[in-house]
Design brief:
Blueprint (H helix, E strand, L loop, with lengths): L2 H12 L2 E2 L11 E6 L1 E2 L2 E2 L2 E10 L7 E13 L3 E6 L12 E8 L6 E2 L4 E2 L14 H10 L64 E4 L2 E6 L6 E3 L5 E3 L7 E3 L10 E2 L5 E2 L6 E11 L7 E8 L2 E13 L11 E7 L2 E8 L8 E12 L3 E9 L7 E14 L7
Parallel strand pairs: 14-15
Antiparallel strand pairs: 1-2, 2-7, 3-4, 5-6, 5-8, 8-9, 8-10, 11-12, 12-13, 16-17, 18-25, 19-24, 20-23, 20-25, 21-22, 21-24
Length: 398
């Protein structure tokens, strides 16, 4: 290129007449059209054109990248190029286009001044679905609030009269602080990842641990069942259906055992009376009371023991053997025969056991009598009556 031609091109670029327009598509690109003259006549041929976007007529704040369009065919001075600086380049503020040109294949671009203002038409790239007028209408209708902050008109929340703001007791808020006067009611299932706390926890039918039932009520809500599978231990590992590592206490009612007896005091509760010294046995057909115990109501194991001695001494030679009968609380203990004095059987120890059901508190007795009905003596050397309570009250009848 000659020096003269360079000057002509410079003058040519300085006197370029711009006729800018826009063609819209579904992208952020736009069409830019201009008219180029050379020495007062329309330019013809191929040129490389360079475009840069700025936010002012002067200054160095460039917007977006520099675009080079090579080998642009110019005929009769008119050229058309498609430019794309990205959708974020057009925000509504002023924009100026800086153009440089060179004949295709030349070494460097020649800068044209001044920068050319961009008209409002290219700002349509901000939306691929709405015009500037539609955007303005929407902004006015939404009062400047982003459309994403609105809900659809058929959203059920629009018909909810409750105040949705934080602190409203009609909602459970996501907070670590306790919310006053707030309740919730869930018809389906729920899961809590952490610890669930409450002053009162009410279950309609049962409580489970590890998927296993630990507490439940019968259908009529009258019987509480502890556990459903395996053994239950309180304070101790249980090898039985139920085991307790401390003291088990009954403040009333006592304990019921498999034989249907109920015990309100220890089963080893014992009553005992012991008599010593010679006690003559009645021999007139009646009975002598050897021992008496006063027992509260309950079920008892009674044991009566006595040592007899025959001291018969009839004046005339006769059979001095003696026969004694005994009764324990009305129950016949048996008949005991004692040999004559000096006979190996003149001393005899008798013992009897019975189970007594005592319906009310009262005395129980041990009685014996000599049937000889003569003057011969039979004495009780010592006698004992003992009772061990095996149950309080009466056994249940099954």
């Amino acid at each position: 290129m000659s020096r003269v031609h360079f000057r002509n091109l410079l003058f040519l670029m300085l006197t370029v007449v711009l006729s800018a327009g826009a063609v819209f598509g579904q992208t952020t690109s736009f069409t830019y059209q201009g008219r180029l003259t050379d020495g007062g006549t329309p330019a013809n041929g191929n040129y490389d054109l360079q475009f840069a976007l700025f936010d002012a007529a002067d200054g160095s704040n460039q917007i977006g990248p520099t675009k080079i369009v090579s080998s642009v065919s110019i005929s009769g001075g008119v050229f058309t190029v498609t430019l794309d600086f990205g959708g974020n380049s057009f925000t509504g503020a002023n924009r100026f286009l800086e153009i440089s040109a060179r004949p295709s294949g030349a070494a460097s671009f020649i800068l044209l001044t001044p920068r050319q203002p961009i008209t409002s038409t290219p700002y349509a790239v901000r939306s691929v679905t709405a015009s500037n007028a539609e955007m303005a209408n929407n902004a006015q209708q939404l009062a400047g609030v982003a459309a994403s902050q609105y809900v659809k008109t058929d959203d059920a929340r629009l018909a909810d009269a409750r105040d949705p703001k934080a602190g409203n007791p009609s909602y459970v808020q996501n907070s670590t602080s306790q919310e006053a006067n707030t309740s919730f009611n869930i018809a389906g299932n729920g899961t809590v990842g952490g610890m669930l706390s409450g002053n009162t926890v009410n279950a309609a039918t049962e409580y489970n641990l590890g998927g296993q039932k630990i507490l439940s009520l019968t259908a009529n809500n009258t019987t509480l069942s502890l556990g459903g599978l395996g053994n239950v231990g309180i304070g101790v590992v249980s090898d039985s259906k139920f085991a307790e590592g401390g003291v088990v206490e009954s403040t009333s009612g006592g304990f019921k055992f498999p034989d249907h007896t109920v015990q309100t005091t220890a089963a080893s509760k014992a009553y005992n009376t012991l008599g010593t010294g010679d006690l003559p046995i009645d021999h007139s057909g009646s009975f002598t009371n050897l021992a008496t115990l006063t027992l509260p109501a309950g079920t008892y194991l009674l044991t009566a023991t006595v040592q007899f001695e025959n001291q018969a001494n009839g004046f005339f030679p006769s059979d001095n053997t003696r026969v004694v009968r005994c009764y324990l609380v009305g129950e016949f203990m048996g008949t005991f025969r004692l040999g004559a004095p000096g006979n190996p059987m003149d001393t005899f120890i008798a013992s009897a056991h019975i189970v007594l059901v005592q319906p009310t508190s009262g005395p129980v007795s041990f009685r014996c009598g000599d049937l000889a009905n003569d003057s011969g003596k039979v004495i009780a050397k010592w006698r004992r009556l003992s009772a061990v309570r095996v149950a309080d009250g009466l056994p249940e009848i099954q």
